[in-house]
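Q: I have two molecules that I believe assemble together. Could you output structure tokens for the complex as a whole instead of separate predictions?
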Amino acid sequence: MIKGYYMGVDVGSVSTNVVLLNEKNEVIFKKYIRTQGKPIIKLQQGLKEVKDFLGNDFKIKAVGTTGSGRQLAGTILGADIIKNEITAHAVSAINFMPDVNTVLEIGGQDSKIIILKDSIVVDFAMNTVCAAGTGSFLDRQAGRLGIDIKEFGNIALKSKNPVRIAGRCAVFAESDMIHKQQLGHNEEDIIRGLCEALVRNYLNNVGKGKNIKPPVVFQGGVAANLGIKEAFERELGSEIFVPKHYDVMGAIGASILAREEVKKTKKTKFRGINIADINYKIKGFECSGCSNLCEIVEICDGSKVLARWGDKCGKWTNAMDLDDHKLA
Amino acid sequence: MKITFPHMGNVYIAIKGVLEDLNQEVILPPRCSKRTLEIGTKYSPESICLPLKINIGNYIESIEKGADTIIIVGSNGPCRFGLYSLLEKNILMDLGYNVDVISFDPPNGNYNLLFKNIEKITGTKNMYQVLKKVNIGKKILKDMDNLMDISNKKRAHAYEKYKVDNRMNSFYQSIEYVHGSNEILNLIDNTIKDISIIEENKEKDCLKVGIIGEIYTIIEPFVNLEIEKKLGHMGVEIEKSLTPYKWVEHHWGKGRLGIGEEVRKIKEAKPYLSTLVGGHGRETVGSAVLYAKKGFDGIIHILPLNCMPEIVAQTILPTVEKDYSVPILTLIVDEMTGEAGYNTRLEAYIDLLKKRREHANDKGILYGS
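A: Yes, here they are, computed for all two components at once.
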């Protein structure tokens, strides 16, 4: 019998994740790839691995995309649903723990807090402007200290006397950290200080004024960091749950949403697994129609234009067939 | 004399009509664009609020087109806008532009100066004539508000939403080529007719969102990253708490008699904020309460970065949110605003509202009958 699966894709700034769910919403395949600024190539690489994993007898019943590259990925794949990260993360947190009240999500460039009540998102917030309270900040400091980011959390747990580090801004935190190093503090104490600075920063900025109630789920790439998890637990005074697939929760959410969508439409728009082999071309050009000088992105499969976006006035987007209409 | 003025939503259409009727030459600033913002950011103080940066961009682009006189209104309220005309004049002088900046302060200062300025700009001493034209200006503003309402509603309901965009785009292009109030009013009427015949789904029960905040950011589409259009494409009906006509009506009409919507806003804001905090801070709080009472699905608050009156309102809004159990989203705009993040927040917010409504309906079925 041919098996049917639901695919979810999360194209973020740091990682591109692909998951396959079965009928019971269980993850049967997951792939975490570093985006490295090449979303299309990495997405195709992910699809190839899906193909290798599944063999021949399978059917993709629905596809959903999310993340900052959701529009791009959605166009290439022919996604049934293109959803923002907040909704996708909330949906997968509910799938993991139906009575969840708070979701803390820290990714590479973004951090979010989502407040739920009876499985409904009632409030959310995202970090503004800078990435001080996110994974990139930790990555950078780990690099400076010459430590593998995977070891970061474990080292933090060894600390007995954490150092207080100013964490409001990544640049200030870095200079403060260097200063503390010069004073002769232990490495583990400094690392734990960094973890606590990040948590403080997150709760003061992103979580400001939000009603944080347990149970709390912590997801996103940074959830792998035990030091951060422990710092959250200390600060919030409640247990923090980290899902098994904490790093691909966005993709899981996208596939659950796609499944629901296809239930309504009865037919998937997925363009087939073989799109892994197509040579996509992206053309970017500046429209000189007015002084906005919009940067138009055109994505082509051979000579066929799949989608265009980026124009404020709709001159290029609206020139497409109506069926291909995709709004940013 | 070639007169220009900064962009502020659709106000420019009315000013153009009035001045052209009075036989004055008007140079319209090009519609706000990335270039406007770039010029403005280059020559304005870094930490000033966004409207001033856009104004400076507007002036310089108009001067390039040949303008030699700039008109702007003043303000009494304790908000930086009151100092805009002085600051802007100094910036332009420092840059070496030889232009006349005329500011109209509301008439509780020097009346003589005000009349002299009006005389200078309108080119007539006949105040009766001027008042008659001002009334036509008010009509243009009212009709423009009406056009915006119709197009926003249509966009939410239409099957082919981009048709509304196309029609509005061509309206804004044509406005530069028509002359005088009659032609402008005709153009508005024709556009309303064209938009009305676009096919729509009348049964669709759209989400309703109220947009509140500082007047400039909510009426100037370039500054708020075209929020009306974005929400319309998501199938959301919107209403704005402040529009040019509402402003005029309050300051030169009903408001003077102590009645009207603005007065009601102040009353509604009272339990939360009983005093003037400058700008439209108090009205923002009042509008949030009004929209909540009217049963809107959500409220979006937009403010320019570091706008003091709106920051006061922002800190009060969570209480309104709790009291009336209506979700309020705050968006801060600045030249640093990334559009992708802005879109993500809007989308997530609309998802939240949709889910809330579905949930409420489910409960109705479960417990209602």
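A: One point stands out. Chain B is about 60% helix and 10% strand.
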